């Protein structure tokens, strides 16, 4: 007999991390587009190298660690302030706020909670910026999603969106995109494991090369993406 039992949060998590969720993620490269312009990313292999580095660095030490700290009870307003301070590239900081704002709006309609209302109030009154990983974490925690599952889903959803954007921008074939995601799954699993062993002194550590590329994008002559 088939076991049709589904944990109460599983379908909600699938909706929350679906690539069709209208947060505007399709409009952002988060720094890989300048690598394409400089021909450092030009095929499946070179994008895979970039994606692995992105997962192991910004997604681990910034987004992922912020999600863990919020789950562990850190103040959302303080975490929001720290994220704003450490996201030095203007376009990436604004991307996090734009996608976070959309996620807060969607969450308020679809997954309302007291904690989400509190964060939305901080943002609407100018006391917080409304960053994407924190918006996701507030919603996920209110739905009872375990931390490890929330982290894995968030990181893999980000990798999926970036891969879909790379398929259009490089361009790559659809099968190449799926191969990249299979490899990214291993990187995400390693990142989730790593996040569990980090502490507050690790928060915000980044790769200078990735950050410089994100800054260069603002002055790139021709662009497909907003960041």
Structure explained in plain terms:
The model is unreliable at 1-5 (pLDDT under 50). With 227 residues, this protein is an all-alpha fold. Helix content is 65%, strand content 0%. The chain has one domain (28-217): Orthogonal Bundle (Urease accessory protein UreF). The radius of gyration is 17 Å and the shape is globular. It has helices at 10-16, 33-37, 44-56, 58-71, 76-86, 90-110, 114-124, 132-142, 147-169, 174-195, 208-217. Helix 4 (58-71) packs antiparallel against helix 5 and helix 9 (147-169) packs antiparallel against helix 10 (174-195). The termini are far apart. The chain is built from eleven helices and no strands.
How is the topology of this model organized?
Elements: H1 10-16, H2 33-37, H3 44-56, H4 58-71, H5 76-86, H6 90-110, H7 114-124, H8 132-142, H9 147-169, H10 174-195, H11 208-217
Brief synopsis:
The chain is mainly α. Helix content is 65%, strand content 0%.
Helical coverage, percent range: 55-70%
Globular, elongated, flat, extended or rod-shaped: what is the shape?
Answer: globular
Say how many strands there are: 0
Annotation field: number of helices: 11
Low-confidence stretches: 1-5
The CATH topology name reads Urease accessory protein UreF
Main structural class = mainly alpha
Under the CATH scheme, which architecture would be assigned? Orthogonal Bundle
Mean pLDDT, to the nearest integer, reads: 92
Number of domains: 1
Please identify which CATH superfamily we are dealing with.
Answer: Urease accessory protein UreF
Evaluate the radius of gyration: 17 Å
Which class in CATH terms?
Mainly Alpha
Biggest sheet features: none
Beta-strand proportion: under 5%
| Cα-to-Cα separation, first versus last residue | 49 Å
Summarize the helix and strand pattern as letters. Answer: HHHHHHHHHHH
